[in-house]
Amino acid sequence: MRPSRFWMHSPDPILATNPGCRTDCAARPFHRHLPGYRATPLHRLRGLARRLGLGGLALKDESKRFGLNAFKSLGASYGIYRYVAARWRESTGTALSPSAFLEGKATEKLGRMTFCTATDGNHGRAVAWTARITGNDAVIFVPECMVEERRRHIEHENAEMVIVPGDYDAAVETAAVEAKRRNLHVISDTSWPGYEQIPAWIAEGYETMFVEIAEATEDERFPPDVVLLQCGVGAFPASAVTWFRRRYSIDSPKIVIVEPLGAACVLAAVMARAGETPIDVGDGRTIMAGLNCGTASRIALPALCQADAFLAIDDHYTRKAMRTLYHSLPGDPQVISGESGAAGLAGLMAILEEAALAPVRTALSIGTGARVLVVNTEGDTDPRHFREIVLD
Ligand SMILES: Cc1ncc(COP(=O)(O)O)c(C=O)c1O
């Protein structure tokens, strides 16, 4: 097992004292219109909290989101809605309501659109799903190494799939080039210079998850003390940092960003921005496929720089977290968590176990009494690998 890497800093006081304190988010009313919408469960893992010596451990289970086994549909659906609504406004001068969008009014007036994206699985499935339920089409660019089951789910949404030689980053580049050539509408969750608005809407869409968490804990003392968030290109954890800082201001929880050692693009980027000695992003080898990204999303970085700690962990911890959630302790629910889904809990386990991470434990007061929140961002999106790990 390779030792974890970490970096800690003090977040910028200007953002930390922003007196926003708003629980609302623009995306929630939209999501309520989607077929099958309901808040995903927030589990209290009391047995595991006791075992880990914590005051409490809550897990938001996004494997239950719209039957798609991952959280990504929150962002893709909202990003596509906002994109289509902007085109509708240009054409009609009026606002497009969520229900008119879902009834296909925009498609009738503007014509059928073909959305496209690169994906390591979950975002592509979510884009394809949104295209299907709104009467549009999708072309999804996937890296050649993507497992069969994830491909099958995308094809099941009637999307055209393009297999790109190379990794996720190669798929992102090919999608951008092919979109121009074929006149496709790019719905990417990562951003680059000149392509920022749609990824920003997608990240806004993820905020619905945090609103649901706040609602589910209305009667309790909230927020938690520490939140651990898994990170790929950074859109998901950036949306969490933005929401928690805006909602809770100086009482905001400490936030830990967790990446695989093989793909620590955000750790490398935030350290570079802070003028630290540059570090390697990693060799791209990790079982956490959803987090296996070589380049951080440009627009996510300012928010991510407001996190308290950045951690890159070995796959050993995510295997362990998957098994722990599957073989639940008496009284705790069983949670089906995939390789990237379990990464937040995996980061927590690393912090609690690894001697070299004692500075993180101490600085964030992760120990007896601490109330911790993690998100299971995906279920068993690679069922064969999932079974191998949990039944090992
Ligand atoms: C299951 C899962 N969790 C977390 C993430 C990380 O999200 P982001 O790439 O926005 O950082 C991803 C990204 O694809 C994912 O699939």
TrEMBL record:
Residues 35-360 form the Tryptophan synthase beta chain-like PALP domain. InterPro entries: DiNH2opropionate_NH3_lyase, TrpB-like_PALP, TrpB-like_PALP_sf. It holds the Pfam family PALP. GO terms for molecular function: diaminopropionate ammonia-lyase activity; pyridoxal phosphate binding. The keyword Lyase applies. Its EC number is 4.3.1.15. Keywords: Lyase, Pyridoxal phosphate. It comes from the Bacteria. Its cofactor is pyridoxal 5'-phosphate. The keyword DNA-binding does not apply. This is Diaminopropionate ammonia-lyase.
